[in-house]
Amino acid sequence: EAPRAAAGPAKTTGAPAKRTRKAKATQAQKLRNSAKGKVPKSALAEFQKRECRGYLGVNLKFMTSARSTVAESVTRQIVRQNRGRKACDRPVAKTKKKKKAEGTVFTEEDFQKFQQEYFGS
């Protein structure tokens, strides 16, 4: 019975080792077949590799190089040309003050004189 007991565990340990070898072989085959021989990397491993990298300098450099300064006269001209195309851009019309009744240059005596000349009364 002792040899059987020793043989029993040996068989059970041999079977999982066989399975792991087979699993590794199939995994290696899958890796060879994917993406023209490129080995896929773990996203977590990639993130951890680049985690300590700071992007502030790169971002500032990009933003300052992409910014173009235009003369203020040019921007005013563009704004002036585009004004009034949309209802929301139109300036509010100012209300005009009511004009006071304009006084005349002629006096009452002049009107009486004209009346006598034209109407004969």
TrEMBL record:
Q: Which family does it belong to?
A: Belongs to the AROS family.
Give me the ranges of the annotated region Disordered.
Answer: 1-42
PANTHER family of this UniProt entry?
A: ACTIVE REGULATOR OF SIRT1 (PTHR31454:SF2)
Q: Which UniProt keywords apply?
A: Nucleus
Protein name as it appears in the record = Active regulator of SIRT1
Where does the UniProt annotation locate this protein?
Answer: Nucleus, Nucleolus
Entry keyword annotation includes Nucleus: yes
Specify the domain of life of the species encoding this protein: Eukaryota
Q: Which organism is it from?
A: Neovison vison (American mink)
Q: Name one GO molecular function term.
A: enzyme binding
Main localization is nucleus
**Compositional bias per record (Low complexity), positions renumbered to this chain:** 1-17
Give the UniProt entry's GO cellular component terms: nucleolus
